[in-house]
Design a protein that fits this description.
Blueprint lengths: L4 H22 L10 H9 L1 H17 L4 H28 L14 H25 L4 H38 L2
Length: 178
């Protein structure tokens, strides 16, 4: 089962995201158009990919304002779905690490990558609160919407913080043995 997880989990998440996105586009002008529960759920479940997508969109809108609708379509489809696959692939690989990162020690800059992941997790919490503030006129919906972002943030910060601490702890005993 563990060998299939890195293949199955990302595929299931991309299919779910595609279904939620299709639901949003089919029902865009319906009664729930202002709340957008389907696309908001898709974005919340895939919060790291959503944050990266929004950073791409912000950069593209600043650099290419004349291509605004085209850039949105490309980023929302061509960039976002592979990002979802990548995020969930990384999650499925990291699950096999028994509480420690499998990927960061392979980078040769383990501490730097762990710190970058912690900063990203913190950015994700801020992004979740900003998304929540968009729906402040419906407080219960806003709170429910913020929960997945904050869970993702907490999971990333705690996991990579633990890994960062372990990386420093692993270096100390080797220094003491002489």
């Amino acid at each position: 089962m563990r060998t299939k997880l890195p293949l199955v989990l990302p595929l299931v998440q991309v299919v779910a995201a595609a279904a939620l996105t299709a639901s949003y586009f089919v029902r865009r002008d319906g009664t729930l158009a202002k709340m957008q529960p389907d696309i908001q759920l898709c974005h919340a479940l895939n919060a790291p990919a959503t944050l990266i997508k929004q950073l791409f969109l912000g950069t593209a809108h600043a650099w290419l304002p004349q291509f605004y609708p085209s850039v949105d379509y490309v980023v929302d489809t061509v960039v976002y779905f592979p990002l979802i696959w990548l995020i969930w692939y990384l999650v499925s690989v990291e699950i096999g690490g028994a509480g420690y990162s499998i990927l960061t020690p392979k980078t040769r800059m383990r501490g730097t990558v762990d710190i970058a992941a912690i900063v990203f997790g913190t950015m994700l919490a801020v992004f979740g609160l900003l998304v929540c503030s968009e729906f402040r006129h419906v407080p219960a919906y806003a709170c429910c919407l913020a929960i997945p972002y904050l869970i993702w943030s907490l999971a990333i910060v705690v996991f990579y913080g633990h890994d960062l601490r372990a990386s420093f702890g692993a270096a100390r005993p080797a220094d003491r043995i002489q």
